[in-house]
Amino acid sequence: MLNAFATRFALYLQARNLYYGWIVAATTFLTMLATAAAMGSAGIMIAPLRDEFGWTTEQISTAISIRLILYGLFGPFAAAFMNQFGVKRVVVFALGLICSGIFASFFMTQWWHLLLLWGVVVGIGTGMTALVLGATVATRWFNKRRGLVVGLMTASTATGQMIFQPLLASLTEASGWRVAMTIIVVLMLVIMLLVLLLMRDHPADVQLPIYGEENLTAPPPRSVGLRAMLMAPLHNLREVSKTATFWVLFLSFYVCGFSTNGLIHTHWVPMNLDFGVAAVSAASMLAIIGMFDFIGTILSGWLSDRFDNRWLLFWFYGLRGLTLIFLSFSDFGMLALFLFAVFYGLDWVATVPPTVKLTTARYGAATANMTFGWIFAGHQLGAASAAYIAGVMRTDLQTYMPALQLAGALCMMAALVVLMIRQQRSVLATP
Fold first, then answer.
1. Are 283 and 269 contacting, i.e. CB atoms less than 8 angstroms apart?
2. Which residue, 37, 20, 10, is CA-closest to 190?
3. pLDDT digits 0-9 by tens, 349-382
4. Which of 52, 76, 84, 346 could form a disulfide with 296 if both were Cys (CB 3.0 to 4.6 A apart)?
5. CA angle, corner 417, sides to 379 and 79, nearest 5?
6. pLDDT of 415
7. CB 78 within 8 A of CB 373
8. Which stretches of 274-400 are DSSP H helices?
C-alpha cells in the first residue's frame, strides 16, 4: 500500500513538472539531520557525564572515538547493505538501532556501558545513515544537479550537529542529559515514519528516470549471497587502493574529520568552558557555525558542478587551517568566537561535494557510494584521532590549544596534497 501511494504521488508531481527525487532527497535530508543530532550530542554530554559518573575527559573521549570510528568504517558496508536490501530498510533499521542505544544509555552505571552503547551501538547505527546515505541517494536519483544535491545532504549532516546544540545544552542544564537525549529519540521515531512513507530505493520504483536522463533505468539485481554482499566492500577497497587518487582523497578526508567532527564538534563546549564561556553560549556559537555551514556547503555543491574540484579543495582546506590557527591565538572573546564561527562555518564540510564529485568522476557512479564509503572511513578515523588526542592533551596539558594548532597545520598540508590528483575521466571497473 505504501509503494502504491509513493507511485501515485510521484506521478502526480511529475504531471506538474515536479520530480519525486526531490521528495526522496528531502526525506534523506531530514534523516541525516536527525542522526547528526545524535552524533552531535557527544560534546554536550562530556561535562554532565564527567560530573555524574566521575569519568575523565579521556575516558569519555574514548567512547566517542569508538563511535566516530564505527561511524566511518560502517560506511562501505552500509553501501553494500543498501545495494542489497534497499535504502529504506537499512535506514529504518539504523534509526531503530540508534534509538535503542540512546534509550538503554539512560540506565548505564559503568564505563563499559558507555563504550558499548554510545560507542558501538550508536556508532553502527549512525554509520549506516552517514554521508554514504546522501551519496547513494544523489547518485541513484540525480545525474543533473548531483553536486548541489550532495551539498544539501552534507549540509544536513553538519547543520544537524549544530542547530540542536543550544537546545540540548539548555535542556541538559535545566533537566539533565537524559531529558535532552529523549528529544533525540522522539525525533528519530518521527523521521522513521516519514522514511517508511516516502523513501524509495530507485527512480524506477516509482516509474521515473534518473533526473537529467530521459529513459527509465532498471535497478540492479539484488540476488547476491550474504558472503558476496559482505565481501563486496573489501573487493572494492582492494581495487581502489591500487590508485593514487584514492589515497589522496582518503588522507585529505582524514584531515577533514580531524579538523571538524573530532576536534571542534566533540570538544568545543569543554574548550570554551576553559575560558569561562558558558555551555549554552558555546553551543549557540555552534549553531552559528551550523547556519553558515548550511550556506557554505550548498554553495560548495553549486561550485563543484562548475569548477575544478581540486582547486576548490585547495582553498577549503587552506582557509580552514587559517581559521583554526587564528582561534588558538585568540582570547575566546565573543568577537573572536563570532568571527571564527562565520568563517569556519562557511568551510565546515564544504570539502564533501568536491570529494564526492572527484570520486564519481574517477571510479564511476556504479560503485561511487561504496568507494566514497572507504574515503569517508578516513574522515572518521581522523575524527576519532582528534577526539582522543585532544582529550589526552586536555588531560595532560590542561589546554586544547596545541590540538587546534596541529589541526590547522594538517589542513595546510591537505591543501597542497589535493593538487596531486590528476584531472582525468577514466573509470575504474570494480567487481
1. yes
2. 37
3. 788 889 988 888 888 767 777 888 889 888 878 9
4. 346
5. 30
6. 94
7. yes
8. 279-304, 309-328, 334-346, 352-363, 368-397
